[in-house]
């Protein structure tokens, strides 16, 4: 049986087990914060954003919280729009509903990272091994450019 495919829509069926299963198989981006700096926790399924003026209207990146582990400082988000910026003077990631504010711990964001339970969708593995599988020896039958 083929898995259900979707393009990061928020699935809300009213049945928690189905909603959780859909969220678990979605593409997630893990953001790493410093767990030693206290702050309010993010709420499940709230929108988070990053902007220069801390206003969502001017956000350079947004996402939906799928999980937050305070002990490790890892925020997992889906429905990512834009690019979360990490620098020496990084902007905070703000929870729209909770008002939680956290700063990056300095770990780079790898958009191709996959949790182990999503290994069949190993984007990083495919990118790294692409040279082995992609045939680039074909000649253009129409001639050169």
How would you describe this protein?
By secondary structure, the protein is an alpha+beta fold. The chain has one domain. Helices cover 14% and strands 23% of the residues. The protein has a six-stranded antiparallel sheet, with no helix packed on it. It is globular and about 60 Å long.
Condensed summary:
With 145 residues, this protein is α+β, with helices and mostly antiparallel strands. It contains two helices and six strands; from the N terminus they run H-E-E-E-E-E-E-H. The mean pLDDT is 77.
State the main characteristics:
single chain, 145 residues, alpha+beta, six-stranded antiparallel β-sheet, 14% helix, globular
Low-confidence stretches: none
The coarse overall form would be: globular
Order of strands side by side in the largest beta sheet?
1-4-3-2-5-6
**Helix- and strand-based class?**
alpha+beta
> How many domain regions?
1
Topology, element by element:
Blueprint lengths: L15 H9 L4 E4 L14 E5 L7 E11 L4 E9 L10 E3 L5 E2 L20 H11 L12
Antiparallel strand pairs: 1-4, 2-3, 2-5, 3-4, 5-6
